[in-house]
Amino acid sequence: MIQQSFVDRERELQFLTDRYRSPVPECLILYGRRRVGKTTLLARLLQTVPGFYFLASEEGTARNVQDFSHYAGEYLNDPDFERSRYPDWETVIKALVRHRNFSPPPGKKMVIVIDEFPYLIARDRATPSVFQKVWDTVLSLEPVMLVISGSSVSTMETEVLGYTSPLYGRRTGQWQLEPLSYPYLRRFLPYDEEDLVMTWCAIGGVPAYLRLFRPDRSFWENVEEQILCKGAYLYSEAEILMQYEFREAGNYMAILRALAAGYTTLGPLCQETGLDKGLVSKYLAVLSRMHLIKDEVPVTAHAGYRRRHYRLADPYLRFWFRFVYPRRAETETGQSREVLASIREEIAPYCGEMFEQLSLDLVRRGILFSGSSYSRLGRWWQKEVEIDLVGLNEVSGDALFCECKWSALNRRQARGILAALREKACEVRWRNESRNEHFALVAKSIEGKEDLRKDGYLVFDLEDIARLSREYLTGTGG
């Protein structure tokens, strides 16, 4: 296994370690999008516990069984184990647990990692049934922790975790690995806070993407070299991801391009893509389940609210479909400099949209407005009136109203935004007679922010976000 620097993942590693220490056999499911760091996490686990890692391929069952026996033989320190021929998964795993060198020390487990499990399913649809039988009749009776991992979120959620899957009910735990949160970007790049935010807006928190950005290059140099250059990894990664996940990749790409262009409701999405309403609704449900998009309703909306808005949630895909995909003809013909110049001209509104999304995530993680919690948190809108961020606490009656601006604000502008926010908050129908209102502003920079705080406003700019992010990383925050 390739060893890479280990950033964050303390909770995920603790989850795996706790399961390893449990007194019973474990069957764990670990999944998440490509390049999110699953292999690095599993490598770190296997540095401290006995076991081995097997990466499945698309070469069919016979080849995969033989490759599995190679890594099992290395673990058992028995070259003859690999040289033997095993007709199927059940036979090789039975031979493994019966081997004289199999048993771990008392109180320990042997960890068996099978990564990219969807490759096995793609070549043999019976694979989940086979592993259900192997677990029931062999592994569940041994001191074992089986970790089934995969990057195809759609396959893992339907064929492994789905109610109709033969493996349903066999798992003893599961974890979907998400991209790193914003504060961890400073572990990869020595940028100032504005460029760090723009980096998050362009590629998000996927560790493999962050490692592609060179620390000795500026943000824009990295965008040109790593995203806009034909042949660069991030130039084609979005398209590969779509083809990896979906049989009808073209339709999904059409929807994501429309979302990135600002078509956020069902009717306009159907018109822009030319797809009928039923198909678009089905595709949106799949994309939402994969956490690539979010479907939104006003934070005060009732459960049956129908007029949903859809947003592309993944920063890299949103950036790629907004700026790269529509201009691929120019990039293919060597005009990447011209494409870069046009992106620089159009980046501010895009970063404004993403800054709202980032601020929401920082609130959810307790980095912004720490000490407060909200049972409902998100955007609010009614006709032409919109508030970027509203948080409601059903127990305490606290109501947070916040505007997020990707701009440097002078005193007059900041106070004007907060005054308008107070007026808009009156339109939000939620405990209007008894709620505790808090008004907030988040921006690039805010002139006179200490005076605003003395007046009772909650104001944060990039300087504050940098400080709070460092405190979050060191555990010294409030």
Automatic annotation (TrEMBL):
This is ATP-binding protein. Gene3D superfamilies: P-loop containing nucleotide triphosphate hydrolases, Winged helix-like DNA-binding domain superfamily/Winged helix DNA-binding domain. Keywords: ATP-binding, Nucleotide-binding. GO terms for molecular function: ATP binding. Pfam families: ATPase_2, DUF234. Residues 320-417 form the DUF234 domain. Residues 6-211 form the ATPase domain.
